[in-house]
Amino acid sequence: MTSVDLVFQSYGRCCRNDAFFAHFYEHFMASSDAIRERFRHTDMAAQRHLLRHGVMQLMLTARGMSDRKLRDLGHSHNRNNYDIKPEWYSLWEDALLKTIREHDPHYTPELREAWREVLKPGIDIIRGAY
Ligand code: HEM
């Protein structure tokens, strides 16, 4: 099985529990005051829903789908819009991997590496648009 297949299956196990996205934002916001501040006025229920799709976009791009949607996310996150600093993306990834470890009963260090490999090109597109 390819890394992308492993990651699709892992994401399916994680998404079965809605708390996955709530826990992700708890971890992510705990990683820095500046990040918590960015979400001060955000409707977090809506944001959790949007993230569910955002992670799917990262995975579909790794599978070869057009990167247009990620370029749009790069635009909304860039210095002229949400102003998301490039160094915050590693905190985002760490929070996601931590949440996957807690939620996926089949989690292994190898699966973590598969996730990192699959997420990287998509994160690079969004961060690179800064
Ligand atoms: C909004 C995904 C990284 C902060 C969004 C949206 C999506 C998304 C799908 C809603 C659509 C939009 O407004 O364009 C992602 C993905 C990321 C990522 C896939 C990683 C590759 C980050 C990081 C931060 C961040 C590192 C740092 C704080 C925000 C904020 C909003 C947002 C502040 C708008 C919230 C609001 O409407 O109040 N993100 N994001 N994102 N994201 Fe991200």
- Silhouette: globular
Number of strands: 0
Overall average pLDDT: 97
Structurally, the number of domains stands at 1
**Helix content range:** over 70%
- Top-tier CATH class: Mainly Alpha
Largest sheet, in brief, is: none
Strand content: under 5%
Written as H for each helix and E for each strand, in order along the chain, the element string is HHHHHHH
Provide a count of the helices: 7
CATH homologous superfamily assignment? Globins
Stretches with pLDDT under 50, minimum 5 residues: none
Which key features would you list for this structure?
mainly alpha; Globin-like; 7 helices; 74% helix; globular; oxygen binding; metal-binding
Produce the secondary structure layout.
Elements: H1 3-15, H2 19-30, H3 33-38, H4 44-62, H5 68-77, H6 88-103, H7 109-128
Helix pairs in contact: 1-7, 2-6, 4-7, 5-7, 6-7
The structure holds protoporphyrin IX containing FE (HEM).
Description of the molecule:
Keywords: Heme, Iron, Metal-binding, Oxygen transport, Transport. This is Hemoglobin-like flavoprotein. With 130 residues, the chain is mainly alpha-helical. The chain has one domain (3-128): Orthogonal Bundle (Globin-like), CATH 1.10.490.10. Helices cover 74% and strands 0% of the residues. The protein is built from 7 helices and no strands. It has helices spanning 3-15, 19-30, 33-38, 44-62, 68-77, 88-103, 109-128. Helix 1 crosses helix 7 (109-128), helix 5 packs across helix 7 (109-128) and helix 6 packs antiparallel against helix 7 (109-128). It is globular, with a radius of gyration of 14 Å. It starts with a helix and ends with a helix. The model has no long low-confidence stretch (mean pLDDT 97). Bound molecules: protoporphyrin IX containing FE. Residues 35, 38-39, 41-42, 47, 50-51, 54, 58, 73, 76-77, 82, 84, 88-89, 92, 123, 126 line the site of protoporphyrin IX containing FE.
